[in-house]
Design a protein that fits this description.
Number of domains: 1
Oligomer: single chain
CATH superfamily: Winged helix-like DNA-binding domain superfamily/Winged helix DNA-binding domain
Shape: elongated
CATH architecture: Orthogonal Bundle
CATH topology: Arc Repressor Mutant, subunit A
Helix content: 40-55%
Structural class: mainly alpha
Radius of gyration: 17 Å
CATH class: Mainly Alpha
Strand order of the largest sheet: 1-2
Number of strands: 2
Largest sheet: 2 strands, antiparallel
Length: 134
């Protein structure tokens, strides 16, 4: 399964903010650091604000910050909101659609993927690999 760039950026932004100890982050600096379009990052951030994960802080030292504690943000929920259709393959446009044995296994695989991510919070994801290994 491959997530869209939109979801990838959302997860990266959330992890960076979870590691920032509550300090707001300016989106231009995030987009430069991650070498991605500012406009794309701004759209992702707007969606995260709409879903209640981020809030905008105005002013000279403003930017984006988490709207919830990182322990309350479930990665599976973020992915569901960023990838509303989350199709593994394009079944509706396939001529085999009504007579295909892959539909059910692919649906189960997608659910297994989400089940794993439902057990991961942003706090878990924000831990560095060296902290997890210790």
């Amino acid at each position: 399964m491959q997530l869209t760039l939109h979801t990838d950026l959302a997860l990266r932004l959330l992890v960076v903010l979870a590691r920032s100890d509550g300090a707001p982050m300016a989106l231009p600096s995030f987009s430069a650091e991650h070498r991605v379009s500012y406009n794309h990052v701004a759209k992702v951030a707007q969606k995260l604000v709409r879903h209640g994960y981020l809030r905008s802080v105005r002013g000279r030292t403003g930017g984006m910050q988490l709207a919830l504690p990182s322990e309350e943000i479930v990665i599976g929920d973020v992915i569901r909101r960023m990838e509303p259709t989350m199709q593994l393959v394009n079944c509706p446009n396939c001529t085999l659609n009504r007579d295909c044995g892959l539909i059910s296994p692919l649906d189960r695989a997608k659910q297994a993927f989400l089940d794993v991510l439902d057990a991961v919070t942003l706090a878990d994801a924000a831990k560095s690999r060296t902290m997890v290994a210790a």
